[in-house]
Amino acid sequence: MSPGYSMFVVLGWALLALGSALLASERERRLAAAGMLCLGLGLSAWRATPPDGVGGLATPARLGEGFLVVNGGLLVVGLGVVLWAAVSGASRRRPHAILAIGLGTLLIARTSLEFLLAAGVARTTGSAVALGLLGAGLVVVGRGAGSAAPARDVSPRRFWGPMAVPMAVAMMAVGTATAFGPHVAIVFVGVIAAAWSGYFLLRQAPRPYPAAPVLTLLLVPTYWLLATIDGPEGLWIEALQRVPLSPAAEWLTAPALLLVGWSVAGLWPLHRWTPGALLAPLGALLLVRIGFPLVPGGIDDWRPVAIPLLILGTWHAVWSARWASAAAGAGLLGLAGHTPVGAAGAVWLLGSAFLLELCSSAPVPARLWEVVRVASWAASAWGGLLVLEGGLRSEVVYTAVGALGLAVVIVARRGQAMIARAPSTPAPSV
């Protein structure tokens, strides 16, 4: 985690994540997830605004009055919602979950108390009440909108069923080429082959149109353009920063790389065509190994388009109960911010998304599945805090809207588990 957080915050956050994952019912886990999003936004905003530009947490005396009040309200709402989830309903029968959440709350409150007192108890309470009422109102609106026919049709369509082992082996092989290939051609071929292997990985009939794998073919003309400019012998990974791309060439190359990286992640509106959480790490590798060193300016130019699309895709993944895809989308958001702390969070999120998708699609014992579920929840919470901090360092408005909107969607959507195993028989197409 970011070195600016004290050990009290780090341990407290880990205990809150563990306790939330161990809550008894889906309703309580959703409430806890929404509370942790609010709390994480408050903590990361505090961390992302040091008074002197050098790491560490800002002292309350150096922060603006408005920041203290609003951020204090976020901290209070976040902790309050998580505690409410712990002591309500069926979770009262799980004392270990309540104990973890209680200890985590005390540890974070110890660090935040000075911050909250500096804002003023009355004003912080008023801010928390206002934020809580706003959130409750948005949840009511969201549930009302969710009862409409168009929203009811937004349901997950994924490749339920047993894995096709040859395709899984092929995807692992080409994924290795993408991760370690020394030349642009090898990485491009790896991404294309992985997308098609993923399409055939899990058996489903009839198969949807392979829109996402087809989009990866954009890498073919992209390679031709790069080879024309620098020659194929100059496209070694370690030499990409020396490729003489003009601003116009960057502007053309960047959207192709971003589109391919996004398409394999299985986010809306391409969520029907690929087991995205298995392939999202390859899209991230495409951006990290080629996109950022080759066309950093072009990616920055297209970021205002990419980030809203990723946010919508992440919201949709939560609404349609695809937690692995939501974690993958949040991981790509961490990369899109192009900050070291966001990239660190992306590693946790993409790794947990891959593990969760793999185990949810394979026959694993029930006890092992429970371990995977809890571990993926904790890793997502850990990485999510880092992604929030990275987002607030690069795109403040998008990050705040995305996080708070995600909290509303998590609570507003009912009736489907956030983390669920594949059924024993293929799910019907919708």
Secondary structure elements and pairings:
Layout: H1 7-21, H2 26-47, H3 65-87, H4 95-119, H5 121-146, H6 149-152, H7 165-180, H8 184-199, H9 211-215, H10 219-230, H11 247-263, H12 276-294, H13 296-319, H14 323-336, H15 340-360, H16 366-394, H17 396-412
Helix pairs in contact: 1-2, 1-4, 1-16, 2-3, 2-16, 2-17, 3-4, 3-5, 5-17, 7-8, 8-12, 11-12, 11-13, 12-14, 12-15, 13-14, 13-17, 14-15, 14-16, 15-16, 16-17
Count up the domains: 2
Distance between the termini: 40 Å
Class by helix and strand content? mainly alpha
| Spatial extent as radius of gyration | 22 Å
Order of helices and strands: HHHHHHHHHHHHHHHHH
* DSSP summary: helix tally: 17
Mean pLDDT: 80
Number of strands: 0
> What portion of residues is helical?
over 70%
Proportion of residues in β-strands:
under 5%
Describe the overall structure.
It contains 17 helices and no strands. It is mainly α and 430 residues long. It folds into two domains: 7-147, no CATH class; 163-416, no CATH class. α1 (7-21) packs across α4 (95-119). It is globular and about 65 Å long. It starts with 6 loop residues before the first helix and ends in an 18-residue tail after the last helix.
In short:
This protein has 430 residues and is mainly α. The protein folds into 2 domains: 7-147, no CATH class; 163-416, no CATH class.
